[in-house]
Design goal:
Blueprint (H helix, E strand, L loop, with lengths): L7 E2 L2 H10 L2 E8 L2 E12 L2 E7 L3 H6 L4 E14 L7 E12 L1 E2 L3 H15 L12 H6 E7 L2 E7 L17 E4 L21 H4 L4
Antiparallel strand pairs: 1-9, 2-3, 2-5, 3-4, 4-8, 5-6, 5-10, 6-9, 7-8
Length: 205
């Protein structure tokens, strides 16, 4: 494995930008000597990451006991096609956060985290849709991981081929990639007289 220490970043601006753009994080933890990695939705609020799911899930039962967790977020920006297979790569941005997740008990903090989840998906949606009722709040566990031990790693730019390979008659370059939103599709049970919200109709990444 080739290490690339020059791709590391520790400034909070870079880290926060990646976390705010991503939708899904992967949470790694261990229960009874068995490691697990589970994808889940998350949101950053200040200097902490909140993540949630069913109160009965294995991940939340373990993490709420303040076991160590590792959270990762990765964004893919392009496929880097070199002249040699060995030098193929990806342009990407990623964050790794380590620490102990704690269960959120305060109702006000729980609501704020749920609002953050909703607004992260589509800004403006929280005030437009029905908000969680007491039964739903009880059925959902939310955990907080402080961003105290966190770092980013990125790769940007063109192909990095060996000089001897530059003369090879092999196409080389970058295939850009990004997440794009399509036109909203109305639910079949949604009243046709309800207009598509502007935040959905004009949503862009």
């Amino acid at each position: 494995m080739v290490r690339e220490p020059h791709r590391g970043a520790y400034d909070r601006e870079t880290i926060n930008k990646i976390l705010d753009e991503g939708f899904v994080c992967h949470v790694g933890f261990t229960v009874d000597a068995q490691p697990y990695v589970i994808p889940t939705m998350y949101a950053r609020v200040g200097d902490a990451i909140y993540f949630h799911g069913s109160a009965a899930s294995r991940m939340l039962r373990g993490a709420s006991a303040e076991i160590p967790v590792c959270i990762t977020v990765t964004l893919i920006d392009g496929l880097v096609l070199a002249r040699s297979v060995f030098n193929h790569s990806m342009n990407y941005r990623s964050v790794v956060a380590l620490g102990k997740a704690t269960l959120v008990d305060a109702p006000s903090e729980k609501i704020e985290a749920l609002r953050a989840f909703t607004e992260k998906i589509l800004p403006g949606r929280w005030n437009d849709a029905r908000q969680p009722n007491e039964r739903e709040l009880k059925a959902t566990s939310i955990l907080r991981l402080p961003l105290t031990e966190v770092s980013a790693k990125t790769r940007t730019g063109p192909v990095e081929d060996d000089a001897d390979d530059h003369a090879l008659r092999v196409w080389a370059g970058v295939v850009p990639m990004w997440l794009a939103a399509g036109a909203p599709i109305r639910d079949e049970r949604c009243d046709a007289g309800i207009p598509v919200p502007q935040y959905a109709a004009e949503y862009k990444r």
